[in-house]
Amino acid sequence: MYYQVVENIMKIPFSDLTLLHKSLHSEIDAAIKRVIESSSFVLGHEVSNFEKKFAEYIGVGHAVGTSNGTTALLVALKALHIRPGDEVIVPAMTFFASAEAVAFLGARPVFVDIDPVTSNIDPQKIREKITPKTRVILPVHLYGQPANMDEIKAIASEYNLKVLGDCAHAHGAKFHGRRVGSIEDIAAFSFYPSKNLGSIGEAGIITTNDNQLAELCQKYRNHGSIKKFEHTSIGINARMEALQAAVLSVKLPHLDEWNEQRRGVARFYNARFTNMPVKVPKEINDIEHVYHVYQIQVDHRDILFEKMMQKGIGVNIHYPVPMHLHEGFAYLQYQEGNFPVAENLAAHTLSLPCYPGIKEEQMIYVVNTLKELIHT
Length: 376
What we know:
Layout lengths: L3 E3 L2 E3 L5 H7 L1 H14 L5 H15 L3 E5 L2 H11 L7 E5 L5 H8 L3 E5 L21 E4 L11 H10 L3 E5 L7 E2 L2 E2 L6 E5 L13 E5 L2 H10 L4 E3 L2 E2 L10 H10 L3 H18 L14 E2 L5 E4 L3 H10 L29 H9 E4 L7 H15 L2
Parallel strand pairs: 4-5, 4-6, 6-7, 7-10
Antiparallel strand pairs: 1-2, 3-11, 8-9, 8-14, 10-11, 12-13, 15-16
């Protein structure tokens, strides 16, 4: 049993990684044993093997494994020659790391409001933020929904800018038949354990079709070195561990199946929220959302959050603070009201349990509980 009923309360986690790991227990054990017996724990065959498999899956020429998703962004930005004083366009609603990586290199994250339908960066608002200092547009495929890459790439081409995709939520998502990570000039993924494709610790990867960018990323992730003890530039330690690569190689063949299960959960919820005061995610034509997060928008969000938790339902908020209102970005001198769509989403978004293996009776309990709480 993967849920528990106590005093008419069903305990449902926000995510249940044990279900995936249990189904692959023997394969994961064998992969871990193989790494230990090899005594090759950083980079090496396991990492290069996974890089090759992931590149083939995404549909690119190169994949460069990193220590996590944030270092993937840092290394990719450095490969794009981002320096202090440069500007990078970032959506006003995303996880902190998307803009943190820009700021860490001394560049300025320039925020752009989001589309009220997709919650992704609004291409119509990008042009007004472009200046002579702009170097990169950094779209985030938030919640697993691909951003509008046709318009973003057209703007980037018009202004001679590069596009760096933040694909942390969107493993396997497709835009017009192409997987995200293959459309951008370069892209960064996180394999944090709860992601659609998750490691058993920290890991990330960079994908690109550009030979030069791939070579730079390989160098910058390893202290500026391609050949041992020869450091031709300043880099960082962002190397992927062999253990994570081995486990990810076991999981990768199952990713599409797991994503389809997530899509099934989303369809189940959507069909049952039609007559409720709930704004559900909307998929745009010819775009394949992979629902890393199934989020709705509701009034009185904070009250519903607390009551859902009291009813045993693991809910979450992605994200309660838009980028420009984080204290860490106070130096940018944005103010409340600068990005009203992002601020509205931050105040109303609520994420529901959505993961491979969730049971129908659990989803029914989520729906019925939410319905009961909204109408009381």
